[in-house]
Amino acid sequence: MKHIYTGTKKTKQRKRTRGWNSVGFVAFIMVSWGAQMLFSGCATTGPEKKQKAVSSIEGFHKELMKNLNQITETLTALNQIETPEKGDLYKPYQNFVKQLNRTTDNSLSMDRHATAMATKGREYFDTWEKELSNIMNAELRTKGAERRGELSATFERITRLAQEVQMTYQPFLSDLTDVKTALGNDLTPRGMAAMKPYISKANKDGEIVMVKLQALADEVDRATNALSSRVGL
Hints:
DUF2959 domain-containing protein; DUF2959; 233 residues; rod-shaped; mainly alpha; 5 helices
């Protein structure tokens, strides 16, 4: 009987140990999860949101400059078809098609960066507005609200200019695509002569697009400097 009692006692101890270990494990998981939520919450505060907004603006600016350069390359390639080397239209036409494809891809990439910039900017200003309510000093809260309003207005100007760019950029690309298709099906001196008025229009429209792109790039550059944490800008 003594042996039986001892065995029963050890069994009860093991059960208590397993029970405690289970509770301890659950408690550890809950504490770890809570810590993770705490630190992940800290990562979404104003400074982090601002840095993400700045990074997205810088990325958008790079895309704008890339589009500006690529439009120049595309129009140069288009104009070179009129004066082909050795009288062969096919080689300069191929280069024009390649440059136009790059321009189209760059345009899509620019659109994606514009969307990302708008999203990051909205998140930043929303967080800033919420955190202003945590400032007890009324004067500091007012100054923060004024500064937020200034930078928010800058983002609104960028959005407006981006819309203006799109209104001219997409029809410009559409016309270039039409020229590519029409000329590709009649790549002859006579076909080239028929395209001259449309090539001339493409050059004029391209200049308008580049002026708007440059204006947008300048505004984005000002916004980057206004938000940058670097001293001396």
